[in-house]
Amino acid sequence: MFCSINSVGIWGIQGSTVVSECFISNGLPAFDIVGLPDAAVKEARERVRAATKNSGLRFPTGRITVNLAPANQKKIGTHYDLPILLSILCACESIKKPPASSAFLGEVSLDGELRPISGVLPMALAAKKAGIQELYVPAANAAEATLARGPVVYPIHSVKELAAVLNGETELYCEPPCNPQRNEYAAMPDFKDVLGQEKVKRALEVAAAGSHNVLLIGPPGSGKSMLSKRLPSILPDMTWEEALEVTQIYSVMGMVSPTEPMVVSRPFRSPHHTVSNAGLVGGGSNPKPGEISMAHKGVLFLDELPEFRKDTLDLMRQPLEDGVVSIARVSGTVTYPSEFMLVCAMNPCKCGWYGDPSGRCNCSPLSVENYRSRISGPLLDRIDIVIEVPGVNYESLRTRAEAEPSSEVKKRVNAARQIQNERFGEHTGMCNGRMGPREMRAYCGLDSRGEALMAKAFDTMGLTARSYDRILRVARTIADMNGHEMIGAGDVMEAVQYRKVNIGNR
User: Fold this and answer.
1) Options 3.10.20.30, 3.30.230.10, 3.40.50.450, 3.10.580.10; which CATH number does 2-166 get?
2) Would you say residue 279 has pLDDT above 90?
3) What pTM was estimated for this model as a whole?
């Protein structure tokens, strides 16, 4: 007796079709699962056996062999429980075989209930690509599966319910499409709470408009963390394609809500400085995304930057350039997207008061140099905007005048990002901070005064080729915000100002 049931596997955030093949033969009772299963898949034997009996169905006696094909691809996760169970019951003719156009996902409990699983969205997208027309998933994952806009999704609560549906004893209704809505009134820290610091706010507005990396340097209490945590309130709205990419990552991590399955706001991740290498870039025996991938299309905020391990920080150099991180293991290589906006904050020295007029700093020049040298030059070269955050003056604290709200700043950011969407194509996800050499040749033309100013800055500041390109990208964003088709001298001058802070590693 033989039967095969379609399912979907996942490696990283890439899904692929998997077939659960079951053969039942005479002989001493045995139950084997082959096809490179991990421990969680092997343990399905006990879950499937108990779930079948507790659902009032007959579990066959004899020698049961289940092969998860293709056999050379590693199988990870508990979502193979349901296809394994169905292939066994169909092979022994306890239930009718479903159509070949259907696929099944789900973890079964010992009493036959279906538990939610992670990674449903990327698997639903893979099912769509493979031509699957009906997808059966646990009820808690049904709304998420509909985001793929592909197969008809059927929510399943239990094995007993599914058996009745396949035998034609009852009818099952499909899950209606999920239409996530962005909550414009969601509570979020607002820029109007920040007193003074208008220059820094302008720099963050430019960074948000073009997705540029930022480093804030200032004494304790100047508002570096406060400003950074309010940055998400002015970031441009995500397109559908961007939201789908981000949701796939959070789905793999099991961090999506059954009621609101789509991530509609740009992520903001702020790991502690004790984060491990694997925690930052991803890793493990079955590689999972790290913080840089969790911040995809959003912000990765590193507070107290010099306190992070130097080798951990340097791991970000390649993802910052390429927008992806590849994790190689014996079983294969996983690639996760990591197009994030890096925002860092640091004190000017160990005590935090270097250069303060009050003379409170007691750090020696060597101590200051050692503190700043914890950040490598190549990493600093990948930061577009470096700006000093001075202490707030008494007058600003006394008057407590309310500043411009984030909603007004966001309108300007959205307008600048719309110009970039029209330039690069809305569905490409490209922005000024991600331009390559070809785009820069096409869209970063300088007028005569701007050309002269850039040449002078290159010679006097000792810029590298990478620094030159980053200034040019920032100038392009400023020109977009100012409504200039060509990059002018004023745009270049402002962009150069954001690279003038000396932190000892240039």
Assistant:
1) 3.30.230.10
2) yes
3) 0.89
